């Protein structure tokens, strides 16, 4: 089992700027929605220690190290994806992070994007980017239409970089997402998985799970981000949506970011946002 240590405040998403291949797991569809402008950020709260995606790849054991408690917050937004479909959406996760002691935040071991149970993703309707092609040729090596998201990363102590997300098939043939930071050469692999029972009870159904395996860099020296925004959602040429929702108008949707850090701290910031439909 992973050593776990809950911080005083909860919230989380830290992405280390180092390649992290992760083996794949299960999945097919996800769905989510929130309003283009209606969103909320959770105050920090203690995270459940249960693994939200235990059926997926397992991170090699690495002992925890001393370090600061992270204090993070999550905001979620949803906007139309431009497909023309009434339920086609783009879901934006926006995480801010700082260390409780004011210094560099602890780096991540793993993070899991959690989607409201009304959310569905449709990767089979989009071209697939092969990891080897992305590694060899950069984003230009991915087929047109395989890009299903984007964002930005703000690093500690300074620096901002573009983030791109591509539809992919993982090693075992299941669906996933490749997250690329071209400026640093980083490629992070997410696997699409069903959430475990405690998280289904919280209102989630699907997760995108990413493991950052141990590297030669000492854990306390690994890269950390002060803010990371990543949106999922795109429209294909024939009008298909990567992300859709079945939620009725007016119902708040729940999103979360379960994260585990090199210190053993586990955080779960959650955000709610309402769907704003247009005719």
Q: What can you tell me about this protein's structure?
A:
With 279 residues, the protein is mostly beta strands. It is 4% helix and 39% strand. It has a 15-stranded mixed β-sheet that branches. Strand 8 and strand 9 form a beta hairpin. The model is unreliable at 1-38 (pLDDT under 50).
List keywords for this structure.
4% helix; mainly beta
In short:
The chain is mainly beta. It has helices at 131-137, 197-200, and strands spanning 5-6, 70-80, 88-99, 108-116, 119-121, 147-155, 160-169, 175-181, 186-194, 204-211, 225-232, 243-245, 252-261, 265-267, 270-274.
Give the helices and strands, then pairings:
Elements: E1 5-6, E2 70-80, E3 88-99, E4 108-116, E5 119-121, H1 131-137, E6 147-155, E7 160-169, E8 175-181, E9 186-194, H2 197-200, E10 204-211, E11 225-232, E12 243-245, E13 252-261, E14 265-267, E15 270-274
Parallel strand pairs: 1-14
Antiparallel strand pairs: 2-3, 3-11, 3-12, 4-10, 4-13, 5-12, 6-7, 6-11, 7-8, 8-9, 9-10, 13-14, 13-15
- The SSE string, one letter per element, is EEEEEHEEEEHEEEEEE
Helix content: under 10%
Largest sheet: 15 strands, mixed
Number of strands: 15
Shape: globular
Average pLDDT reading: 83
Number of helices: 2
Which regions contain 5 or more consecutive residues with pLDDT less than 50?
1-38
Which structural class matches the secondary elements? mainly beta
Q: If you compute it from the alpha carbons, what radius of gyration comes out, rounded to the nearest whole angstrom?
A: 17 Å
Strand content: 35-45%
| Straight-line N-to-C gap | 49 Å
């Amino acid at each position: 089992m992973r050593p776990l240590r809950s911080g005083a405040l909860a919230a989380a998403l830290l992405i280390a700027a180092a390649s992290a291949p992760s083996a794949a797991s299960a999945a097919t569809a996800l769905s989510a929605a929130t309003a283009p402008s209606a969103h909320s950020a959770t105050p920090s709260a203690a995270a459940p220690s249960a693994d939200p995606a235990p059926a997926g790849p397992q991170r090699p054991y690495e002992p925890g190290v001393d370090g600061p408690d992270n204090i993070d917050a999550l905001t979620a937004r949803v906007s139309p994806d431009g497909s023309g479909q009434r339920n086609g959406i783009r879901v934006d996760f926006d995480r801010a992070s700082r260390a409780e002691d004011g210094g560099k935040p602890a780096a991540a071991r793993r993070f899991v994007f959690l989607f409201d149970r009304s959310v569905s993703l449709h990767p089979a309707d989009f071209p697939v980017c092969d990891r080897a092609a992305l590694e060899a040729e950069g984003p230009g090596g991915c087929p047109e239409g395989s890009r299903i998201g984007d964002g930005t990363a703000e690093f500690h102590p300074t620096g901002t970089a573009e983030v791109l997300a591509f539809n992919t098939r993982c090693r075992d043939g299941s669906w996933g997402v490749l997250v690329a930071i071209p400026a640093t050469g980083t490629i992070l692999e997410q696997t699409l998985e069903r959430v475990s029972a405690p998280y289904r009870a919280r209102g989630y159904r699907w997760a995108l799970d990413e493991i950052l395996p141990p590297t030669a860099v000492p854990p306390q020296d690994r890269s950390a981000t002060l803010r990371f925004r990543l949106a999922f959602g795109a429209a294909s040429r024939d009008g298909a949506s990567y992300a859709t929702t079945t939620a009725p108008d007016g119902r708040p949707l729940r999103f979360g970011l379960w994260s585990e850090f090199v210190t053993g701290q586990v955080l779960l910031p959650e955000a709610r946002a309402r769907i704003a439909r247009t005719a």
